[in-house]
Amino acid sequence: xxxxxxxxxxxxxxxxxxxxxxxxxxxxxxxxxxxxxxxxxxxxxxxxxxxxxxxxxxxxxxxxxxxxxxxxxxxxxxxxxxxxxxxxxxxxxxxxxxxxxxxxxxxxxxxxxxxxxxxxxxxxxxxxxxxxxxxxxxxxxxxxxxxxxxxxxxxxxxxxxxxxxxxxxxxxxxxxxxxxxxxxxxxxxxxxxxxxxxxxxxxxxxxxxxxxxxxxxxxxxxxxxxxxxxxxxxxxxxxxxxxxxxxxxxxxxxxxxxxxxxxxxxxxxxxxxxxxxxxxxxxxxxxxxxxxxxxxxxxxxxxxxxxxxxxxxxxxxxxxxxxxxxxxxxxxxxxxxxxxxxxxxxxxxxxx
Length: 352
Ligand code: NDP
Known about the structure:
Layout: E1 12-15, H1 20-32, E2 35-40, H2 46-58, E3 62-67, H3 77-80, E4 85-88, H4 100-121, E5 127-131, H5 141-146, H6 167-184, E6 190-196, E7 198-200, H7 211-220, E8 232-237, H8 238-250, E9 256-260, E10 263-266, H9 267-278, H10 290-300, H11 306-312, H12 322-328, H13 335-348
Parallel strand pairs: 1-2, 1-4, 2-3, 4-5, 5-6, 6-9, 7-8
Antiparallel strand pairs: 8-10
Helix pairs in contact: 1-2, 1-8, 4-6, 7-13, 9-13
């Protein structure tokens, strides 16, 4: 793996800077001494940015806020001006959707185009690091069996998600495809993509924003006490995801997509780690039979459609993180302590 090289003379842009992943990324950039252009929807909301202000006060870097929205054309132009690197992390990641097109796909895809148009306009930009997802690589666990060697690599694309089925995964797939199209249409800046699996770990923001917290909460608040759905997933610590972004930006040779995932595990595997970290609690101790989830799941949670259950529960998951280790030099940390820290934050907030 090549060494990282950085030049802090020019600022860097982080979109969605108040988010969960972005917080740890901004921290690393400030520690390196960068001036971070933080593009956020609500720059005047002190509660959302106080953790970033505190970090800027303790590190050699500096932070400047810019108001920007993925739904507004031209919104990121001012923030991108003069920057050498754009980190595009912002994208809607939520289960609270009423219309998948307007709530997920439009901001993800049009927003990515808007950010990359800002890269095209700002002559200083040399690299764009996009936070995509393993969701752009596969749609359902059943797809994993179709991958070469039944394990996902960067060569695989999600072809099974749609507006009606796994809409979030569809939004991430369409956004990454749009990014590659725009990257190929020019030759000044290079696109490097980070594709994380399920991200966990502590939040720097006192009020965690990410859907990741809602998912871990369900493992810890008793909702799955009778058993976890038999669902295999990949998982990675948020600090490793931030690290992968920094490496993707500053290793000169970095190129293409990078599966960023520490382990192949399951919901029950996460629950077992939680118990190890926290001690006893209302965590699931077994997996529910697939037929039971199929029968009652749709009544418990509208995200759990019968198709989603059929194509995911009880199917093996495997993601190959070899490229991220080789090309980015990633050495993944154990995910268990991060789960414990997440639990402590949920507990402090009275959520579990
Ligand atoms: P967060 O919800 O904490 O971060 C998402 C960010 O996107 C927020 O800062 C949010 O801003 C911003 N955003 C959403 N909609 C808009 C909009 N219309 N205009 C401007 N900004 C917007 O989640 P994460 O940190 O977990 O997610 C960060 C990235 O990582 C996303 O791209 C997500 O798809 C990706 N990812 C996440 C995984 C996970 O398990 N968490 C796994 C794989 C990929 P605001 O604070 O104003 O709401």
